[in-house]
Amino acid sequence: MQFDIITLFPEMFSALNYGIVGRAKKQDLLSLRFWNPRDFVQDKQQGRVDDRPYGGGPGMVMQVQPLRDAINKAKQADDTAAKIIYLSPQGRLIKQADIQRFAEQPKIILIAGRYEGIDERVISNDIDEEWSIGDYILSGGELAAMVMIDAIVRLLPGALGDPTSAINESFSDSLDGLLDYPHYTRPVIDSNGQAVPEVLINGDHEAIRRWRLMQSLGRTYLKRPDLLTNRSLNPEEAVLLQKFLECSKEK
Ligand code: 4FV
């Protein structure tokens, strides 16, 4: 998968050289290419990529020309059709289902803004989609771009040691929009004398499956009830959620 990133700070993306994404890069499951609008500034005197906002107000705005030229270069860098995405708080909130859709793209061009943002004419003329990673304000789009790349790369075939791990996790298909169940590993009794739940060490896989589903349902009900509003429960799930709530009441 090809990622072309329009950014004033390409060096920030060295953060992607580690862990699963770092290994995927080495395995050429993805390649990153950077385009710095500063290299496309025509007005060498002024030499700026930003300017004061029309209508006044604080801060600066990134200018059309350096951005547009960088985007066109990224598009022409190969003949692969690209989806052009601008990361901003005005974008739709990214969900795992969107990440799954992005992971099917052969090439994505990501525009990381700085300052107050970019000239609206780039948004209305040069990009396909505007996405946000969350309802808060960052100082630049680079971290948001890296969040997206990390979430996408994990879904690329071969990126995860065990492909099933991408299947069984929060918001993934198998958990179908539920929060993940709790994870435990050795020792069976920890330094506080707290034990791993018995069901997980008895080897009864059907009982383990039901316990984990009950935990996912219960934790989602308690921590993210919004995730259950437009999700119907099948009969087994309804029984398991009830059981979870009865147990948590007794505690
Ligand atoms: C952001 C977000 C974000 C806004 C002004 C960059 C900053 C600055 N991007 N999801 N939340 N961007 O806060 O994607 O230019």
Output the number of helix runs: 9
| Cofactors and ligands | ligand 4FV
Strand content: 5-15%
Structural class: alpha/beta
Poorly predicted runs are none
CATH superfamily of the largest domain: SPOUT methyltransferase, trefoil knot domain
- Based on CA inertia axes, which overall geometry fits? elongated
Do you know the CATH topology of the largest domain? Alpha/beta knot
CATH class of the largest domain, anyone? Alpha Beta
How many beta-strand segments? 7
Helix content: 25-40%
Distance between the termini: 49 Å
Q: What letter string, H or E per element, gives the SSE order? A: EHEEEHEHEHEHHHHH
CATH architecture of the largest domain: 3-Layer(aba) Sandwich
Query: What's the alpha carbon Rg, rounded to whole Å?
Result: 23 Å
Tell me the major beta sheet. 5 strands, parallel
Give the secondary structure arrangement, pairings included.
Elements (H helix, E strand, L loop, with lengths): L1 E5 L12 H8 L4 E5 L14 E2 L9 E2 L1 H13 L6 E11 L2 H7 L4 E6 L7 H7 L2 E4 L9 H12 L10 H4 L37 H19 L2 H4 L5 H16 L1
Parallel strand pairs: 1-2, 1-6, 5-6, 5-7
Antiparallel strand pairs: 3-4
Ligand 4FV binds next to strand 5.
